[in-house]
Design brief:
This protein is mainly β. The chain has no helices and 31 strands. A hairpin with a 3-residue loop joins strand 23 and strand 24.
């Protein structure tokens, strides 16, 4: 990573004015981006500000109350803590080596990072911004998620072809679930009963019962799944693949639609209402807006240099984008 490149977090709000701060050069550049909603009335996404964070920001998560944003910086093994109200970094937390994913428990009591190189999960108390536990997991965890009741943490271990199951109360691994080759994504259903692991190499989704911690089915895909997310009602699973979005019926475990994308995806996030999926395309410096009602890409907009991850505020009015310039 060049020392002359500024790693940033971009904030997009709706509606109104756009101001982009090129932090390294101290320049202010105006820009306007407009996105239509599924109802066809104008919704304006505007670049609000950019915030300098650590080296190599690769994942972003928002606290349940929307007051804090957490960015994992894979190149300096840290988490940047941003105060949403002021758009400022208020703390930096050292975590395990090369963190690739960050998530906040639904109850807001813990932050978890998946640390790729040392095969661990860092557990952070957000009230103190301190690491309170480090949990060894399977080799090279790429993604981490938490059950809806905040009791269980799951990691996708890409070099072990497994998912680690962690009991949050004790910070211990209670089960290891074999899945497909090179799992890089995990998502849990809203009722907490089912976990989905995206297996990059074999182009499939492993369906896991959280009651038994066993894989009960495998869903074949046309492409390699990079990220997965589940609709708020739990009826639909979405995967971004190497060049497409797959729409999967979670009742029948069948792919009902495959929609091509204009560029390879690097991340996705579902809007709180479930009507849109925002898909980051790092190599194209873009974010696509995918309408879950019509299963179509309804717009794309510029999103800074190499958007690596995207997350939405709980009210759906703000997008936070981690920019990982190469």
């Amino acid at each position: 990573m060049s020392p002359f490149v500024s790693e940033e977090t971009t904030i997009l709000r709706r509606p109104f004015r756009v101001v982009a701060a090129a932090l390294l050069l101290g320049l202010i550049v105006p820009l306007m981006v407009m996105l239509p909603t599924p109802a066809a009335h104008a919704a304006h996404y505007v670049l609000d500000t950019t915030i300098a964070v650590g080296a190599g920001p690769s994942s972003v998560a928002v606290s349940p109350d929307g007051s804090r944003i957490y960015i994992v910086n894979s190149d300096d093994s840290s988490v940047s803590v941003i105060e949403a109200a002021t758009s400022t970094v208020i703390d930096t937390i050292a975590v395990g080596t090369s963190p690739r994913s960050v998530t906040v428990s639904p109850d807001g009591s813990r932050i978890y990072t998946a640390n790729l190189v040392d095969s661990s999960v860092s557990v952070i108390d957000p009230s103190t911004n301190e690491v309170i536990a480090t949990i060894p997991v399977g080799a090279a965890p790429q993604a981490v998620t938490v059950s809806p009741d905040s009791s269980t943490v799951y990691t996708a271990n890409q070099a072990a072809d497994s998912v680690s199951v962690i009991k949050a109360a004790t910070n211990t691994v209670t089960a290891t679930v074999p899945v497909g080759q090179i799992p890089t994504a995990v998502a849990v259903s809203p009722d907490g009963r089912t976990l989905y692991a995206g297996n990059l190499f074999e182009k499939s989704i492993s369906v896991i019962s959280t009651a038994t911690n066993t894989a009960t089915d495998t869903i074949a895909l046309d492409g390699s799944p990079v990220y997965v997310t589940v609709s708020p009602d739990g009826l639909t699973l979405y995967t971004t693949n190497d060049s497409s979005v797959s729409v999967i019926d979670t009742t029948t475990h069948t792919v009902t639609a495959t929609i091509p994308l204009a560029a390879p995806p690097t991340s996705l996030t579902l809007s709180p209402a479930g009507d849109n999926i925002y898909i980051a395309h790092g190599s194209a410096d873009l974010v696509s807006v995918f309408d879950t009602v019509t299963n179509t890409v309804i717009d794309t907009f510029s999103a800074g240099d190499w958007p690596s991850s995207v997350a939405a505020s709980p009210d759906g009015n703000t997008l936070y984008i981690a920019n990982f310039p190469g």
